[in-house]
Specification:
- By secondary structure, this protein is of the alpha+beta class.
- The protein is 30% helix and 27% strand.
- The chain has 4 helices and 5 strands; from the N terminus they run E-E-E-H-H-E-E-H-H.
- A hairpin with a 2-residue loop joins strand 1 (2-6) and strand 2 (9-13).
Length: 86
C-alpha cells in the first residue's frame, strides 16, 4: 500500500494487504455515491482489501517505492523476475 507524497516526491510504502477479486456490481461507485461525492466520477473503482498491516510510524519511516525498484531492479516483483529469467 502506497501514498503519493511531495517531499520526497513519489510513492511511499506504508503497509500491505490482500486484494479481493474485483466484482463490478460491488466495486463501482453508484450514481448516488457519485452525486454525493463528485470526485468519484473520476475515481469510481473501489479496491477492496483484507488483512491490512501498516507501518507503526509516520510517512518519514516509510520506504520509497521508487527507491525499492531502483535497488532491486527486476527482482522487485515476481512477474518482472519471471520475465527476466526467461
Amino acid at each position: 500500500m502506497t501514498r503519493l507524497t511531495e517531499d520526497p516526491r513519489g510513492c511511499m510504502i506504508f503497509g500491505r494487504a490482500e486484494a479481493l477479486a474485483f466484482l463490478e456490481e460491488r466495486d463501482m461507485a453508484s450514481l448516488k455515491e457519485k452525486a454525493e461525492r463528485p470526485w468519484k466520477e473520476d475515481y469510481p473503482v473501489y479496491l477492496r482489501v483484507r488483512n491490512p498491516i501498516f507501518i507503526d510510524g509516520t510517512m518519514a519511516d516509510c520506504t520509497s517505492f521508487y527507491e525499492l525498484i531502483e535497488t532491486f531492479k527486476y527482482n522487485s516483483f515476481p512477474q518482472t523476475k519471471l520475465r527476466f529469467d526467461q
